[in-house]
Specification:
Blueprint (H helix, E strand, L loop, with lengths): L2 H11 L2 H15 L12 E2 L1 H6 L3 H20 L17 E13 L3 E8 L2 E9 L5 H9 L5 E10 L5 E4 L2 E6 L15 H6 L1 H7 L1 H23 L3 E2 L5 E2 L11 E4 L4 E5 L4 H10 L3 E9 L11 E10 L3 H22 L6 E4 L2 E4 L5 E4 H9 L6 H10 L14 H13 L9 E4 L1 E2 L15 E2 L1 E6 L2 E8 L4 H14 L12 H9 L4 E7 H9 L18
Parallel strand pairs: 1-2, 4-6, 8-12, 16-17
Antiparallel strand pairs: 2-3, 2-5, 3-4, 5-6, 5-7, 9-11, 10-11, 12-13, 13-22, 14-15, 17-20, 18-19, 20-21, 21-22
Helix pairs in contact: 7-8, 8-10, 9-15, 11-13, 12-13, 14-15
The structure holds one RNA strand of 76 nucleotides.
RNA sequence: GCCUCCCUAGCUCAAUCGGUAGAGCAGCUGACUCUUAAUCAGCGGGUUGAAGGUUCGAGUCCUUCGGGGGGUACCA
């Protein structure tokens, strides 16, 4: 088969709408311009351009034009020097963006551009005032093309701030027909798979990701101001520790070893405390080989932090301040009054001090009997159809049954509009957590819940190497299911603790979920730019 | 993993009991120098996610497969 044949065959497969756009691309080239554009210096954001509009200059210019027209009418055939001079003090700007509307009136073409700052910004391209090539470009521009324009800022009769183009330049051709101009892109699969289309075609989507970016930089600023240092620790780990989750496995060729994508940065961050870093945080991507739903993406972002010489309580304060600061940033960005932000049906109040309630207290309040009343707990669990025995049919320990009931009933009974720390978890539920000094049955752990979602667990960290070693051992001994395959005894971590880790508080904030809350998005996929999807067939 | 719903033109959606697949937007041709989802006149556009099956006849009913949504499970 010759090359020509291949080209022909390929073209036959091209959809007629794409073919049409390819022809329009040729028409741009025929004007002597590169459809894929050149560097374009000095282009303002569309919002920035609109802000430059000068009412007085525009009015003065219009008056000048009117006076000149009047003079031409009054003195037909008057020589040029005798006519009033029109002074044009209107600011001239350069703009660029994606074409979202195109109205061709013959010798005057109206085009609306969009960029990340502005949904729609109008330019007018007139055959009389625009350069010839620019007018030609405007005539063959398709929806979705990226173009740039330069000209004075004026306001139309209908009152819309507009660039009256003196030149138009092609920046890039869009060969793919864009979504419907009004209804937009509603197919969620396409929105996630082709985020590049979603971002320009769905202003709400752009808004969310711009806000997410602002929140991340605000979080860094806030933590740095609070004396925390940002660090980066390994994502490829020989042992996946710091959480109980199934890891992703990969292989390193050079060393011929199995490596795991990290499930948590915890054990490395604690090593840094041993080394002498006092307050550290990592904005960390974690990978957990588990199911996906509205609150879980297999890779997700956490802000994990540790404070030497602190404890669970001190870190709860750090978290509360951080979350409140992020709420403030989100409120400002969204023009909200105060610190109450909507999340679905809820109005979540971030201003008031976060609620605190003990696990047992919440249990009793929600169920009407104490969790120590194990017969009633078991009865209720059976009633609710909850898991009371393991896969082999062996009855679960009381505390796990209590927790089943707790998660089914008590967590849901929280006031979701009020950020709440649940404290005093039973030790047995958090086997790796340090038991409370005054009451060893209680773990030094506090979980922040907002909007019905678990947002951030807090711990007073274990720093006794012998206790840590025995907890590793317990974890390995007790279980022989699939999960335990990935649990391991981290010898080096115990060695680090033997060197001596100061007492510390630690916390891991689920960033994606916080962004969901603050951007009022109900699914994690709407706050992750490229959520994991099954590969296209 | 299990349950359930969805997949129709480039996009957003219709199609009654199983009876000739339609509309708006976008596109094409023409008109138009202050439009606003511009307007006006005309035109084209489909392997109904895929493959089987039932039927005289399938977008519609059945089976399998693919992709997606929701729920559920796993998830310190």
């Amino acid at each position: 088969m010759s090359e020509d044949d291949q080209t022909t065959t390929a073209c036959d497969d091209i959809h007629h709408l794409e073919q049409q756009r390819r022809e329009n691309r040729e028409k741009i080239a025929a004007l002597g311009l590169d459809p894929y554009g050149l560097r374009y210096d000095g282009a303002l954001s569309l919002a920035g351009a609109a802000a430059r509009y000068d009412e007085a200059a525009d009015v003065a210019h219009q008056a000048g034009v009117a006076a000149r027209k009047q003079a031409q009418k009054d003195h037909p055939g008057a020589a040029e020097p005798d006519l009033p001079v029109v002074t044009d003090g209107r600011p001239r700007v350069r703009v660029a963006g994606r074409v979202v509307l195109h109205r061709d009136n013959g010798k005057l073409v109206w085009i609306n551009l969009r960029d990340e700052t502005c949904e729609s910004f109008q330019i007018a391209v007139s055959k009389r005032e625009c350069d010839e090539a620019g007018f030609g470009v405007a005539k063959v521009t398709d929806l979705g093309d990226i173009i740039a324009a330069e000209g004075p800022l004026m306001r139309t009769k209908a009152g819309e701030i507009t660039v009256w183009a003196e030149s138009v330049r092609p920046m890039s051709k869009c060969l793919v027909p864009p979504p419907e101009k009004r209804a937009g892109l509603s197919d969620v699969e396409t929105r996630y798979r082709q985020r590049y289309v979603d971002l320009w075609a769905t202003p709400e989507s752009m808004r969310v990701f711009r806000l997410r970016s602002e929140l991340m930089s605000a979080a860094r600023r806030h933590l740095e101001a609070a004396g925390f240092m940002e660090v980066e620790t390994p994502m490829l780990q020989a042992q996946a520790g710091g959480a109980a989750a199934r890891p992703f496995i990969t292989h390193m060729n050079a060393l011929d070893i199995e490596l795991y994508l990290r499930i948590a940065p915890e054990l490395y961050l604690k090593r840094l405390l041993v080394g002498g870093m006092r307050r550290v945080f990592e904005v960390n991507r974690n990978f957990r080989n588990e199911g996906l739903d509205k609150q879980h993406n297999p890779e997700f972002t956490m802000i994990e932090l540790y404070e030497a010489y602190g404890d669970m309580e001190s870190v709860m304060g750090v978290t509360e301040n951080l979350v409140r600061e992020l709420a403030r940033v989100a409120a400002t960005a969204q023009g909200a009054e105060g610190l109450t932000l909507p999340f679905g049906e809820l109005e979540i109040d971030y201003a008031r001090p976060f609620e605190r309630v003990a696990y047992g207290e919440l249990f009793e309040r929600a169920l009407g009997f104490p969790m120590s009343d194990t017969s009633r707990v078991r009865a209720r669990a059976e009633e609710l159809g909850l898991r009371v025995r393991d896969e082999k049919g062996v009855e679960l320990d009381d505390v796990f049954v209590v927790n089943e009931v707790f998660e089914a009933v008590a967590e849901g009974s929280l006031d979701h509009a009020r950020p709440t720390f649940i404290t005093h978890y039973p030790s047995k539920l958090s086997p790796l957590t340090r038991p409370n000094r005054d009451d060893p049955a209680v773990a030094d752990r506090a979980d922040l819940f907002i909007g019905g979602m678990e947002i951030a667990p807090h711990y007073t960290e274990l720093n006794d190497p012998d206790v840590q070693a025995s907890k590793f051992r317990e974890q390995l001994a007790g279980i022989d299911d699939e999960e335990s395959t990935f649990r391991n005894f981290d010898e080096d971590f115990v060695r680090a603790l033997k060197v001596g880790m100061p007492p510390a508080g630690g916390m891991g904030l689920g960033v994606d979920r916080v962004v969901m809350l603050l951007c009022n998005q109900r699914t994690i996929r709407d706050v992750v730019l490229f959520p994991l999807m099954r590969p296209e067939a």
